Predict the structure.
Amino acid sequence: MAGQLCFASDYDGTLVHGPGIPSVQDRAAVDRFREEGGLFGLNTGRTRRGLAASLKDRLPLDFVILMSGALVLDAQREVIWERRMPRDVAAEIVGRFRLRALGLFLVAGNEYWTTSPVSLVRRSRGTFNVVRRFSMIPDPIYGVAFRMLTLDAASGLASRINCDFGSVATAYQNGKSVDVVSAGCSKATGLEVVRRELGVRAMAAMGDSYNDIPMLRAADVGYTFPSSPAEVRDAAVSVLPSVGAALADFSLRMHG
């Protein structure tokens, strides 16, 4: 595998838009890229179960970076790298900021967890579980996710967490959501794990939101959309309309 080209795509808002699945054109472009020997994977804030529930094995992947870089899996979905969040750090972040959020979820194991005092028993609900107490959430904990009312509220919360907890945790704004992982963990660190473990010659990445900025800067070629925020466009090398267009451009740059 040494010397291969590699392309990492964000999932929500990049490879898929809304509740849909990857477009026929993007899936065909991924197939062509892999047939030419390239490696294609996802770099997302989702959990393993959350991604699986949406993707349903519709697209072959050579690697998966989950939860903003906290967990990296190979093609067989075996763990090749992880960074957990200490339970006391997660508990302090939850206790400090939970009343500011519309929704709050802990990322533990393969899925999301939330608490509700009216939930008498643990039950599965979609891709997350509801429990009565924080202590009922199992290890390992990888991070905390907040859902906010506005973009400004999400930006303010991310800044506050980074100011107060910067030595132990890092917060990334993703639209109206904020993903918090252990310090030193990002979509960029996930890329570096893939680069090292899979012997990558050149790495490209595409994303659409603020939490994608580290990976766009870490990639050899970073891509985003014309509709992305200005800060995201500034971090990218090229602005293109789709993952398929970015894959074609990356192949041309490397082989042309």
